[in-house]
Amino acid sequence: MKKTETMVNNTRVSIIIPTHNRKTSLKRTLDALCNQTYPLKNLEVIVVADGCIDGTIELLRGYAAPFVLRVIEQSPKGAAVARNHGAANAMGQILLFLDDDIESTPSLIETHALRHYGRSRQVVIGYSPPVLEGPIDLFSMGLRSWWEDKLASMKTPGHRFIYSDLLSGNFSLETDLFRKANGFNQDFRCREDYELGIRLMSIDASFVFEPNAIGYHHETSDLSRHLTRVYQEGRADVLIGRYYPNLLPVLPFSGLRMPGSFIKRTLLRIAFRLPGLADRFAVRLKTVSALLEWLKLRNRWHQLHNIQHYYWYWRGVSDESNTVQAFDNFTHCRPGYADKNYSCIEIDLSNGIEEAEELLDQERPEHAYILYGKRPIGHIPPNPCAERLSGKHLRQILANELAAPLLKALIAEKVMSRADNSSCQRLHHYRQYSGEENAQKSA
After folding, report:
1. Euclidean distance between the first and final Cα of the chain, in Å?
2. Taking a C-beta distance cutoff of 8 angstroms, is the pair 409, 441 a contact?
3. What is the pLDDT of residue 418?
4. By CB neighbour count within 10 A (0-12 exposed, 13-18 middle, 19+ buried), where does 74 fall?
5. How far apart are alpha carbons 414 and 248 in whole angstroms?
6. Which tens digits make up the pLDDT trace of 388-406?
7. Is residue 424 within 8 Å of 407, Cβ to Cβ?
8. Residue 125 phi/psi, 5° resolution?
9. Beta strands, E only, 35-99
10. CA dist 334 to 58, 250, 317, 338, 359, Å?
11. Taking CA 284 as the corner, what is the angle to CA 278 and CA 285, rounded to the nearest 5 degrees?
12. Over the stretch 308-329, which tens digit does the pLDDT of each residue have?
């Protein structure tokens, strides 16, 4: 209680909300902020109206807010510019970025603020469960599944965050840290949060997921808007590759270009060579999708959806690259992992897991070799997408990726008997069986 009182009496939080022609959604977001457990006198809400012409400005001028409400107008320049604009005018020590379709629960701001208390250089990602606004169809169910899977992965103990875990709809960080990272890159109209995640990781910011910082995400996307978004993601990934060549091997277009089916190879060619003709055909496929869903041909619908997703992603890549030759030159010049001098250490588990975790926390290497005495256990390779290794990652990596060689080393060193190993294996199989059995029961 004392901790909370000290924190709330000394910490001012600036909430930044970019918005574009969604006044109804924005009002719901503001209404929810009126009911926070955090003292409203320590809040300022900055709404950046990005080229709004739907009455948003009039709504904001007449809104009776119990907190400081500041309104900034700008010509339409995109969310990255709007967020930077709001942050440049913020007075708080903590910046909390919320999208205008996030309906916060009463404890959202307090939970974010508490996560920062006594810690520095933290990026706190809140939980934004999707609330589907439109009809429940195959597309909306797939979208909800994607959101839930994404958020569930971050809940896993020892999760090693990657840059694409930074979701701009509900996250907070210190104002000084945001300014040190130079804010959002304004060249991006899409995936500007991912790009910021890359730079925050490069200055050793620590990412955490806070499941109690809940803001309901009122999702209004449909198939057409989703495919437009996929097109923008293709363009944004090329931009990311230009800014960060070391990420080229792990960007989605690198994996998607592997030899695939005849259909995919054909789609790839026409995305670059006949985009106008192919676009007209691809637009008509949306009608076919609706027909397949009406006929309850779910598998066919998913196959067609994957094709559309693939095509529009590559259309974005081709528009940003101009020609297939330019794209090939761009990707073939990529550096390999070996071209960068990644920091590395050796970890000896014979000194105890706690000591190994402490060493990782001190050194924060990009990759590590794991030993037990003189026996090699394995290698945690560098991952240019991910945060540096720390102690919290070690147990999960040992359990999921290095369990077998670790058990062999423990038996060889007589730390563990073969009987123990068999018990572990039986336990592992039992858990697997139980999991499968539970899944079958659930189904």
Report:
1. 44
2. no
3. 56
4. middle
5. 45
6. 999 999 999 999 899 999 9
7. yes
8. -105, 120
9. 43-50, 68-74, 94-98
10. 50, 11, 16, 11, 33
11. 90
12. 888 889 889 988 988 777 887 7
